[in-house]
C-alpha cells in the first residue's frame, strides 16, 4: 500500500509502507528530460549511490513502465535518474542516459546533493533500456551494470560489447518465455573471465514484475544487487550468495562473485 502525501504534475511524494524510507520522484530543472527518484530525506544515508535507468521500449515515461520498481530502489537509499519524464512521449537514447551520468558526476557532493556518491554509478535498464545501458560500456565512470529482460541484439557484436565492460554485470531475465532470454543468456556466457557476473531467471516473461507493489521480485532482487555492488552492503550480498534468490524462485548461475 502506498499513501500519496502530495501531488502535482512535477512532484509526487510517496510513503512506501514497508520500505526503508519515504521516497519522491520529480523532474529537476537542472536535468530536463529525466525523472529523479530519491529518498525524501537525503540525509538519512551517509552515502547514496546512483542508478541511471533506461526504460522498456526506450519509452520516455519511466513512471508508467517502471514506477514501483524505481521507487523501491530509491527507498533503500539509491538515487535513480531515469530517462524521460512522468507521462512523457516519444523515445530515449543512450545519449539520454549519458546526460544523467554527466549530471550525477557534476552535482554529487554539492549543495542538496552532498550525500550523493558520484563515483558509485550503475548503468541499468529494461529491454531497450538495457541496450541504452550497454551504450555506456566504455565509460569508466560506471561501477556496475544491470541488464533487465534484455541482451545485445546483434550476436556478432556481443563479444566486443561485453569485453569492454570492466565492472560487475548482473542479468535479470524472465525465463524462457522472455523474448530477451536467448540474448541475455548469450551475453552472460560472453562475460569475460574474472568479471563478477550473475544471471537469474524468474518465470514471468518479458514484462517482469515492475508494476507490482515495490516492483515485485524484480524490485527485491534489484535493490539487493545495487546495495551490494554500489554501497558494499554485505547483508544485501546474501541474496545472491546464500540462496535468497533461489528461495524466491530465481533460477541462477554466477561467476566470480568473490571478486565483487
Beta-strand content estimate: 25-35%
Order of helices and strands: EEEEEHEHEHEHEHEHHHE
Overall pLDDT metric: 93
- Kindly report the name of the CATH homologous superfamily: Alpha/Beta hydrolase fold, catalytic domain
Distance between the termini: 34 Å
Which class of secondary structure composition applies to the elements? alpha/beta
Shape: globular
Strand order of the largest sheet: 1-2-3-4-6-5-7-8-9-10-11
- The tally of domains stands at 1
User: How many β-strand stretches?
Assistant: 11
**Any idea what the CATH architecture is?**
3-Layer(aba) Sandwich
- DSSP helix count? 8
CATH topological fold name: Rossmann fold
Radius of gyration: 17 Å
CATH level 1 name: Alpha Beta
Main beta sheet: 11 strands, mixed
The helix content is 25-40%
Uncertain runs: 1-19
Polypeptide structure, described:
- This protein has 260 residues and is of the alpha/beta class.
- The protein has a single domain, classed as Rossmann fold (3-Layer(aba) Sandwich).
- Helix content is 30%, strand content 25%.
- Strand 3 and strand 4 form a beta hairpin.
- The radius of gyration is 17 Å and the shape is globular.
- The N terminus is likely disordered.
- InterPro entries: AB_hydrolase_fold.
Summarize the structure.
The protein has 8 helices and 11 strands.
Amino acid at each position: 500500500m502506498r499513501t500519496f502525501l502530495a501531488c502535482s504534475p512535477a512532484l509526487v511524494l510517496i510513503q512506501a509502507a514497508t520500505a526503508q524510507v519515504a521516497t519522491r520522484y520529480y523532474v529537476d530543472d537542472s536535468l530536463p528530460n529525466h525523472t529523479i527518484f530519491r529518498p525524501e530525506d537525503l540525509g538519512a544515508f551517509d552515502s547514496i549511490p546512483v542508478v541511471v535507468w533506461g526504460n522498456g521500449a526506450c519509452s520516455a515515461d519511466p513512471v508508467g513502465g517502471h514506477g514501483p520498481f524505481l521507487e523501491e530502489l530509491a527507498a533503500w537509499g539509491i538515487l535513480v535518474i531515469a530517462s524521460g519524464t512522468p507521462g512523457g512521449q516519444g523515445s530515449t537514447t543512450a545519449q539520454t542516459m549519458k546526460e544523467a551520468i554527466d549530471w550525477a558526476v557534476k552535482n554529487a557532493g554539492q549543495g542538496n546533493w552532498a550525500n550523493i556518491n558520484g563515483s558509485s554509478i550503475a548503468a541499468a535498464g529494461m529491454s531497450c533500456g538495457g541496450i541504452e545501458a550497454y551504450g555506456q560500456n566504455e565509460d569508466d565512470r560506471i561501477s556496475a551494470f544491470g541488464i533487465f529482460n534484455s541482451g545485445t541484439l546483434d550476436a556478432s557484436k556481443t563479444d566486443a560489447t561485453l569485453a569492454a565492460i570492466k565492472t560487475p554485470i548482473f542479468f535479470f531475465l524472465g525465463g524462457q518465455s522472455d523474448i530477451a532470454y536467448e540474448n541475455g543468456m548469450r551475453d552472460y556466457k560472453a562475460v569475460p573471465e574474472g568479471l563478477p557476473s550473475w544471471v537469474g531467471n524468474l518465470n514471468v516473461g518479458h514484462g517482469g514484475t515492475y508494476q507490482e507493489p515495490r516492483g515485485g521480485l524484480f524490485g527485491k532482487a534489484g535493490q539487493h544487487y545495487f546495495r551490494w555492488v554500489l554501497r558494499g552492503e554485505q547483508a544485501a550480498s546474501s541474496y545472491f550468495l546464500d540462496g535468497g534468490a533461489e528461495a524466491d524462485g530465481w533460477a541462477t548461475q554466477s561467476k566470480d562473485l568473490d571478486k565483487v
